[in-house]
Design a protein that fits this description.
The chain is of the alpha/beta class. It is flat. Strands 1, 2, 3 and 4 form a four-stranded parallel sheet that branches. It is built from six helices and four strands; from the N terminus they run E-H-E-H-H-H-E-H-E-H. Helix 5 packs across helix 6. It is 52% helix and 11% strand.
Length: 168
């Protein structure tokens, strides 16, 4: 199972439900390798540089998503695909996407759904999030928004050279 648009606590709860349901109703217990989380990831030499470089693209990306969500046909389509059971396990309740985002200021959503910082910060966040969620796989989103290729490549190089060797 792969998920994206939720915070760490909600994802941990979803994965716990998934594992319990699979064990009790399907006869198997999914391990960490059976759960994945997708996050936008951006790495720069320092946390400050990462935030300054990534934030404009995150704002545009999440701002666009929030604007899409304001369209009736998009909202109706999303509502139609959700059943009463879809979120019955959740103590966080059901939230229409985007959680915490408004077209005029999508930064709260980016803070929950993106990992950005220095290599040390990104490594720490990935490990903390995976531990808290019980997830073994990370699907990274880079580039994101209207990020130019040269900016994306700088981040991707740091991710490959400094972050990946420190993850299993």
């Amino acid at each position: 199972i792969v998920t994206f648009f939720s915070n760490v606590e909600a994802i941990a709860e979803m994965f716990t439900y998934f594992r319990t349901y699979a064990r009790e109703h399907c006869g198997w217990t999914p391990g960490p390798e059976d759960t994945a989380v997708s996050r936008h990831v951006f790495v720069a030499p320092t946390d400050e540089q990462a935030r300054a470089q990534a934030e404009p693209y995150l704002q545009q990306l999440y701002g666009r998503r929030a604007q899409l969500w304001e369209r009736d046909e998009i909202r109706q389509m999303a509502e139609a695909r959700v059943t009463e059971r879809s979120f019955s396990y959740s103590t966080h309740g059901r939230h229409s996407m985007p959680i915490g985002a408004r077209a005029e200021d999508p930064r709260p959503r980016a803070d929950h759904h993106a990992i950005f910082g220095s290599p040390d910060t990104v490594i720490r966040r990935i490990k903390e999030d995976q531990e808290a969620m019980g997830s073994g796989l990370l699907v990274t989103g880079l580039p994101f928004g209207p990020m130019p290729p040269d900016v994306a490549m700088q981040s991707l190089e740091l991710f490959g050279k400094e972050v990946l060797p420190n993850l299993r």
